[in-house]
Amino acid sequence: MSEWRYWLNEQRGTLLGLVIFLAMFVVYIANHPAGLTANVAQTAANKGVLLAFVAMAQALVVITAGIDLSVGMIFILTNCIASYIVAGSAGTAALGVVGVLLAGAACGGVNGLLVIHGRLQPIVATISTGAIYFGLALLLRPFPGGGVNEDLADALTGRLFGVIPSSLLLLLGVVVVVWIPFRKSLLGRAAYAAGSAEAAAYMSGVPLKRGKFAAYVLGGFFAGMGGLFLTFFTYTGDAAYQSGSGYTLWSIAAVVLGGVSLFGGRGSAVGAIFGAFAARTTGDMLFVFDVDPLWQPLLQGVVLLIAVSIGAVTLFRVRNRLEWFQ
Question: What are the structural domains of the chain?
Answer without folding.
Answer: 11-325 (1.10.3470)
